[in-house]
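Handout, page 2. Input:
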Amino acid sequence: MRIAIVDDESVFRKQITESISSLYGKGEVSCFQYADGKELITAFRNGFELDAVFLDIEMKEMDGMETARLIRTYSTDIPIVFMTSHTEMAMEGYEVSAFRFLSKPASMDKLRETLMDLEKKLKVEEKIVLKVDGEEVIYPVSSLVYAEAANNCVRFVFTNDSIETRMKFSEAVTIIDSMSGDFFKCHRSYYINLGRVKKMGTTDVCMDNGDDLPISRSVASSAKQKLFEFIRRTGR
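Output:
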C-alpha cells in the first residue's frame, strides 16, 4: 500500500510514518512524506500513483481542505484521512468525501483500525496479524511461504521475514485457511503455500525462498495432485 503523509510539521510526518511502518511487515507499505499540499498536488500532476492520503488540516500555505479539493480534481475516490486536533472541522471534511478523521497525535489502536478499514475499501488481499513484542504486525497472506510447528510455538516464514509466536499449530492452520485455500499440509509440522513452491519431489519440496521441507510419505501423491490443481486453476 502506498500512502502519502502530508503535514508541515516534520516531527509529526516522521512519527506517523514510523507508526504505520511498524504495523506492517518489511516492504509491505510505503509512506511518502510531503511538507505541504503543493508538493502533493505536484506529485498528482506528474502522475504519481497513491493508494491513500493522510492529510493534516491545519497547514500554513495550503491547508488540508484546499488540498483535498484539488486532490478530488485528480481522483474522486482516493481515500483521504484527515489528521486534526479540531473535531469541529469534520463537517467540512464531508464536502470532499473524507474517509476518516484521526486526532493528533493518533493512538496506535485508532491508526490500526483506520489502516484495516482502508484495506477493506481498497480490497487489498487478506492479511495475517501477528503479535511481536506485544505489538501487532501485519503481513499479506501471499507473502507467507510456510508455517512451521516449533514446540509450543509456530514459526511463520515470509518472503522477507520470519516471526515465531506462541500458539497451537492447528490454530495457525485455521487462521491461514480462513484467508486462503492455497496452502497444503505436506508434513505434520509444515503448512506450505502452493504459490511459493519452486520444485516438488516425492520426499521433499523446495520453496521459492530456498528452504527445503520434508513431505510425509502418506501425503506425497496428494501433495503433487494439489500442486497440479493449483497450477491449473491459477495458470502459474
